[in-house]
UniProtKB/TrEMBL annotation:
<dbReference type="InterPro" id="IPR001763">
    <property type="entry name" value="Rhodanese-like_dom"/>
</dbReference>
<dbReference type="Pfam" id="PF17773">
    <property type="entry name" value="UPF0176_N"/>
</dbReference>
<keyword id="KW-0819">tRNA processing</keyword>
<dbReference type="Pfam" id="PF00581">
    <property type="entry name" value="Rhodanese"/>
</dbReference>
<comment type="similarity">
    <text>Belongs to the TrhO family.</text>
</comment>
<comment type="function">
    <text>Catalyzes oxygen-dependent 5-hydroxyuridine (ho5U) modification at position 34 in tRNAs.</text>
</comment>
<protein>
    <recommendedName>
        <fullName>tRNA uridine(34) hydroxylase</fullName>
        <ecNumber>1.14.-.-</ecNumber>
    </recommendedName>
</protein>
<keyword id="KW-0560">Oxidoreductase</keyword>
<dbReference type="InterPro" id="IPR040503">
    <property type="entry name" value="TRHO_N"/>
</dbReference>
<dbReference type="InterPro" id="IPR020936">
    <property type="entry name" value="TrhO"/>
</dbReference>
<dbReference type="GO" id="GO:0016705">
    <property type="term" value="F:oxidoreductase activity, acting on paired donors, with incorporation or reduction of molecular oxygen"/>
</dbReference>
<feature type="domain" description="Rhodanese">
    <location>
        <begin position="122"/>
        <end position="216"/>
    </location>
</feature>
<dbReference type="GO" id="GO:0006400">
    <property type="term" value="P:tRNA modification"/>
</dbReference>
<dbReference type="InterPro" id="IPR036873">
    <property type="entry name" value="Rhodanese-like_dom_sf"/>
</dbReference>
Length: 247
């Protein structure tokens, strides 16, 4: 049986994450959904997996119980269930960054569609930054992308303050797996005085889904946090890439 996998996030005011967790957990358990869903006062973020009908029912329940008008998500597939269990957790942030006061709903970088990404990152005046952690970058990245050398996303603000200069780096393009890290990274960089900050809409997953391999500037596999390890073009599992020893 093929398993459908949904990568999803949304920033929105969530006054009582624990109450939402308690409503969603029995629904997920009844549907046989596995994966991880993080809830915080700033929104939700997760990757969930189940047979197609069950996954669709779970996504509808999340949207309904959270009172959302829409819940964007990216679909991929797995031959077998890629998660061992279900985890629904309440956190301080849905993606840990450590800089208070950032709200991507108020201020965020310029979204760039996957079909416009190649032209942007081919511009020699654009500094291209991979916002992911180094072990992820080792598995695959875009041509010309800079690896900040971070072990945790919470180290990214220090990298920006120590290595980048708004007066020197006029145009910056950033990307991450599904888009969520870039939401906070671009909001932070705008706050730090950088003026032209772009990020790949939908992240690497959207790019690999929409851009044919013969037109792609992506090399390697995109690390995903489940048993499939890495995905390639068409969001197919990349079988010959393993997690680096430095993880």
């Amino acid at each position: 049986m093929s398993i459908a996998v949904a990568a999803l996030y949304r920033f929105f005011p969530l006054s009582d994450p624990a109450a939402l967790r308690d409503r969603l957990r029995p629904i997920a358990e009844d549907l046989g959904v596995r994966g991880t869903l993080l809830l915080a006062q700033e929104g939700l973020n997760g990757t969930l997996a189940a047979p197609e009908a069950a996954l669709q029912a779970m996504l509808a329940a999340i949207q309904r119980e959270a009172g959302l008008d829409a819940l964007p998500w990216k679909r991929s597939a797995a031959a077998e269930m890629p998660f061992a269990r279900l985890k629904i957790k309440v956190k301080r942030e849905i993606v840990s960054f450590g800089v208070p006061g950032l709200d991507p709903n108020r201020q965020v970088g310029t979204y760039v569609a996957p079909d416009a990404w190649n032209a942007l990152i081919a511009d020699p005046d654009v500094l291209v930054i991979d916002t992911r952690n180094s072990f992820e970058v080792q598995m695959g990245s875009f041509a010309r992308a800079v690896d900040p050398g971070t072990v945790s996303f919470t180290e990214f603000p220090a990298y920006v303050r120590e290595q980048l200069d708004p007066a020197k780096h006029k145009k910056i393009a950033m990307f991450c797996t599904g888009g969520i890290r870039c939401e906070k990274a671009t909001a932070f960089m705008l706050k730090e005085g950088f003026e032209e900050v772009y990020h790949l809409d939908g992240g690497i997953l959207a790019y690999l889904e929409r851009i044919p391999a013969d037109q792609s500037l992506w090399h390697g596999g995109c690390f995903v946090f489940d048993e499939r390890v890495a995905l390639g073009h068409g969001l197919e599992v990349v079988g010959d890439i393993s997690v680096p020893e430095s993880e």
